[in-house]
Amino acid sequence: MATDRLLNPADEPSPRPSVLQESGMPDLPSRSADVALKQLRVAEFLEDEGYDALWLQGQDNFAWFTGGGDNSAGAPGPGKAALLITADARSIVADNVEAARIFEEEVGGLGFQLKQSSWHEPGSRLRGDLCRGRKVASDVPAEGTVYEFEKVRRLRLVLTELERTRYTDLGHDISHALEATCRAVTPGETEADVAGQLGHRLLKRSVSPVQLYVAADDRAAQFRHPVFKDNPIRKRCLVSVFGRRHGLCAGATRIVSFDKPPAALVEQFNLAAMLDATYIYFSNPNELLAEVFRRALRIYEKFGSPHEWILCDQGGVVGYSPQEVLVRPESPFRLRENMALSWNPTIGAARSQDTVIIDDQGFEVVTSVLRWPTTTVCIKGQSIDRPAILVR
After folding, report:
1. ∠ CA 330-332-335 to the nearest 5 degrees?
2. How far is the C-alpha of 199 from the C-alpha of 212, rounded, in Å?
3. 10-residue mean pLDDT series, the chain (392 residues)
4. Which domain-ending residue is among 128, 154, 180?
5. Residues 247 and 346 placed together within one structural domain of the fold
6. Do 325 and 234 lie in a common domain?
7. How many domains does the chain have?
8. What is the pTM of this model?
């Protein structure tokens, strides 16, 4: 059974100052320790898989290994700089346009060497010289390397101490921006208006929106991934976002209604919240994702919605991507301590979603509500709070 309560302090909570804003750059000693730990992971990977070196060029893996560095140069796709990592050395590989900035602003003081080429030379030439005579694994298809994206991705799924701290700050800032946007939206505004306001609030906190859904009225029931359009909002609005900072991604969803929501929507939402709480409760270290899904499927069936899960992906493990490991009915993936998850079950026009981190003590909701009504769901005697529908 669920009960609602409204967290309503007199003043709107203000965003916490991030480490980035306090010092101008993330804490160098913590990043240095983080990079050293990740080099140990890479060294173990190289030994176990029989490789001499690892070539990383994907933006997500670059951010992971460098403790939050950015090799994108503001463009999508493979990064404009790569990493070449051996058991005991790490190098930045870039052309002369990007080399100085990345070496100074993204990885300065972190023990990297610099390998540089001219911008007008084929990038494959320097890579070929560096990889010649070595067996090199890579996270992108690249001549002279062996493509091992899935194996490489596993290295980044268990969070370090620095990453957990950053997740707490990231989740707070996403919740603040999301809730402030929903409290400010007014009838007649468009989905695009709301998306722009949320994007503005996130970018002010150095959080990049990587997935942003806004659904006016009942559009969320028609399309489970409602990319924002110019549709005017009349009665209610669903807003869902994944934001990225230091490479890490966290997601959350909130629903606001301008009047008492219809009974059908309330019923749908209560079931979505129960499903979300079920996913969270059974997400324990060493548990198979398929078993977590099986527990949720029983709730879908018990409450007369056995096919709703087919209409939308259910979420899963997140980290340096909004979808590191997507849950599937027969998923062989096993959860581990210090992994981040974001479940997003949908029922009709309702969705319930936050980002949590699991460990042997239970779970931490990093995108927990700040000033928002909550609904309490009891799973096997444990009370789990989920964001409710805000009625304004």
Report:
1. 120
2. 9
3. 41 46 62 97 98 97 97 86 97 94 94 94 89 96 96 97 98 98 97 98 97 96 96 97 98 97 96 98 98 97 96 98 96 97 97 98 97 96 97 94
4. 154
5. yes
6. yes
7. 2
8. 0.92
